[in-house]
Amino acid sequence: MVQCPEKKGGVGKSSIAVNLAAISAKQNLKTLLIDLDPQANSSQYILGESATYSADKTALEPNIENFFQDVLGTTQQKGLIGNALGSILKSRNKDFSQYIHHSNFKNLDVLPASPTLGALEHALEAKHKIYKLRDSLQTLIGQYDRIYIDTPPAFNFFTLSALISADRVLIPFDCDVFSKRALQTLIENVIETQDDHNDRLEIEGIVVNQFQAQARLPREVVQQLKDEGLPVLNSMLPPSVLMKESHHKNQPLIYLSPEHKLTQSYQLLFNEIEKQ
Question: Residue 184 contacts by C-beta under 8 Å, 6 or more apart in sequence?
Fold first, then answer.
């Protein structure tokens, strides 16, 4: 299980999660992508119009918010003790797979995001529901070969829930000073999660995105990370307009243009991760 957080927006978190998941599925690995980011970029990337919401169009359901609502029991009436007990029993019997949607791509399923997921954060924290995602994912053992989780851009309850659920974490990095400053804080958060909640969690590596090999500054920044002993992965992702086309057509790179340089870079990244 690989999870992709970022400390600030715009470093390709969702694109990396989706394209690694798509390559996994293309290699006949039964793959699930869970979208915990209220922006729902991963959901829309794979599911297209059905997962696109707006002021006059609600989010695709069932989704990750529905799951957490059921964890809280907020969708059930609890006016009487009998109703409350029935709600508890019904919630406990829910099958986690009912929230999952099949995509048009073989072997690739999605648990879509919701734009209003953040409204549940306080209630979930207050009722100590931080392990519920992990526990529900354990019920899928044997159904999926790989599970990827796309987290929110900020470190919050949902990011922590994902880290508690994950075996490995990927950290996207875009070679600028602000990303470098945020990187240490994020690594500290991961290590703290490992110490307090999930001793099997490992940092898979830092994924350098938008890497311009001919430019001096990106090379220097990456070398600084390596000199500091940080786990920078060898496979780096170059910039390309193909990514925008991929988003627009709702087709991951491996399906849109499998021989393109950017696609091949993602393939090398996937292979590197799988070998570790």
Answer: none
> What is the rounded CA–CA span in Å between residue 113 and residue 123?
18
**Could you tell me the pTM of the whole model?**
0.91
Report yes or no: 29 and 195 within 8 Å, Cβ to Cβ. Answer: no
At 78 the pLDDT is: 43
Q: Are 53 and 40 in contact (CB under 8 A)?
A: yes
In the chain, the amino acid numbered 184 is: Q
Task: Tell me whether strands 108-111 and 101-102 are parallel, antiparallel or unpaired.
Answer: antiparallel
pLDDT along the chain (276 residues), means of 10: 56 93 98 97 96 87 97 62 50 80 98 96 97 97 97 94 97 81 90 97 95 92 94 96 97 98 98 93
Rounded CA-CA distance 212/233 in Å is 15
Residue 174, pLDDT score = 87
Question: For residue 144, what are the β-bridge partners?
Answer: 141
User: Rounded to whole angstroms, how far apart are CA atoms 210 and 102?
Assistant: 30
Cα 193-110-59 angle, rounded to 5 deg? 100
First CA to last CA distance, the chain: 13
